[in-house]
Design goal:
The complex is a heterodimer of chains A (113) and B (112).
Chain A (H helix, E strand, L loop, with lengths): L3 E2 L4 E5 L4 E3 L2 E2 L6 E7 L6 E6 L5 E3 L5 E5 L4 E6 L8 E9 L4 E4 L3 E6 L1
Parallel strand pairs in A: 2-12
Antiparallel strand pairs in A: 1-4, 3-9, 5-6, 5-10, 7-8, 8-9, 10-11, 10-12
Chain B lengths: L3 E4 L2 E4 L5 E7 L5 E8 L3 E10 L2 E4 L6 E3 L9 E3 L8 E8 L7 E2 L3 E5 L1
Parallel strand pairs in B: 2-11
Antiparallel strand pairs in B: 1-3, 3-8, 4-5, 4-9, 5-6, 7-8, 9-10, 9-11
The chains are: A mainly beta (113), B mainly beta (112).
Chain lengths: 113, 112
């Protein structure tokens, strides 16, 4: 089964700073990759997903992620964060067996106004 | 509104008590899942179901049971609550592909 590693557990930024969150998955082959966001007190929402094609994927709210197959990575980026980006971010890999997602441990991002 | 509905939102249990977390979806999704979320651990899959009458264990099934008698409902049962089951529980459903992964709003459970 896949495993997913997110390198940073906590990130603190000031508004307008750039954000990059790391994500690595455990083995290759065909992968479907996701980033989810969980705002305080809310459930998970999909930010973006990669299935195939252009390895640079654009999502909602100005987020993007780059799939690098050789590094088994799918890092999330945002050029300029806002206070409203304060949330927990989860990387996930889709496993066809059972049609299920395997999640990383999450990264809590705090954006200071 | 269409989606995944979880009840209750909050619950405090005493050690050894039992309870059922309810999950209902109205999107006619075949696949349903129960995850638990613990700080720094992400979401761990407890049980999942690929259709009515079919369930299977995920990563952390011990201490839990599920049933899937209808397409809509996927309740999670805790028989003998333990402090280690203090967590936030999320139910989710999806269609055959991962496009339609929809989460419920969660149940925050505390076992004391």
């Amino acid at each position: 089964a896949q495993s997913v590693s997110q390198h940073n557990h906590h990130v603190i930024l000031s508004e307008a700073a750039s954000l990059e969150l790391g994500c690595n998955y455990s083995y290759g082959g065909t992968v479907n990759l996701f980033w989810y966001v969980q705002y305080p007190g809310q459930h998970l929402q999909l930010l973006l997903k990669y299935f195939s094609g252009d390895p640079l994927v654009k999502g909602i709210k100005g987020f993007e992620a780059e799939f690098i197959k050789s590094k088994f990575s799918f890092n999330l980026r945002k050029p300029s964060v806002q206070w409203s980006d304060t949330a927990e971010y989860f990387c996930a890999v889709y496993e066809a067996a059972g049609n299920k997602l395997t999640f990383g441990g999450g990264t809590r991002v705090l954006v200071k106004p | 509104n269409a989606g995944v509905t979880q009840t209750p939102k909050f619950r405090i249990l005493k050690i050894g008590q039992s309870m059922t977390l309810q999950c209902t979806q109205d999107m006619n999704h075949n696949y349903m899942y129960w995850y638990r979320q613990d700080p720094g651990m992400g979401l761990k899959l407890i049980y999942y179901s690929v259709g009515a009458g079919i369930t299977d264990k995920g990563e952390v099934p011990n201490g839990y049971n599920v049933s899937r008698s209808t397409t809509e409902d996927f309740p999670l049962r805790l028989e003998l609550a333990a402090p280690s089951q203090t967590s936030v529980y999320f139910c989710a459903s999806s269609s055959l592909t991962p496009y339609g992964y929809t989460f419920g709003s969660g149940t925050r459970l505390t076992v004391v």
